[in-house]
């Protein structure tokens, strides 16, 4: 159920997953920037930023019930999958948890 309407109920699970994924990516990115091997994480940090951004935009499109919401969610799923794969390359807890959140978000976005 939406915040003020039921009009976006069909997207609510994915909206919640995308919001959580965006938050996880920003948190993970901040932690990666402070890791001693931050220079080796450049690609991962970039992908985390992309993933957080696309998740936020996907939430907006779903909340507006845009006719392009499904198209954007497919792109979001792809970027979430890529981000999860990048995070899996690092074995610290925050990257492992973020990869799990990204994979779950990708699955939800793929089903839109």
Give a quick set of tags describing it:
112 residues; mainly alpha; Substrate Binding Domain Of Dnak, Chain:A, Domain 2; Four-helix bundle copper-binding protein; YHJQ-like; 0% strand
Layout of helices and strands:
Blueprint (H helix, E strand, L loop, with lengths): L11 H22 L8 H22 L5 H19 L5 H18 L2
Helix pairs in contact: 1-2, 1-4, 2-3, 3-4
Description:
This protein is an all-alpha fold. The chain has a single domain (11-110), classed as Substrate Binding Domain Of Dnak, Chain:A, Domain 2, CATH 1.20.1270.360. Helices cover 72% and strands 0% of the residues. The chain is built from four helices and no strands. It has helices at 12-33, 42-63, 69-87, 93-110. Helix 1 (12-33) packs antiparallel against helix 2 and helix 1 (12-33) runs antiparallel to helix 4 (93-110). The two termini are 16 Å apart. The model has no long low-confidence stretch (mean pLDDT 94).
The count of strands amounts to 0
Q: Spans of 5+ residues with little confidence (pLDDT < 50)?
A: none
Rg from Cα: 14 Å
* Total number of helices: 4
Helix content percent band: over 70%
Mean pLDDT: 94
- Could you give a short account of the major beta sheet? none
Order of helices and strands: HHHH
Pfam families: Csp
Protein name: Four-helix bundle copper-binding protein
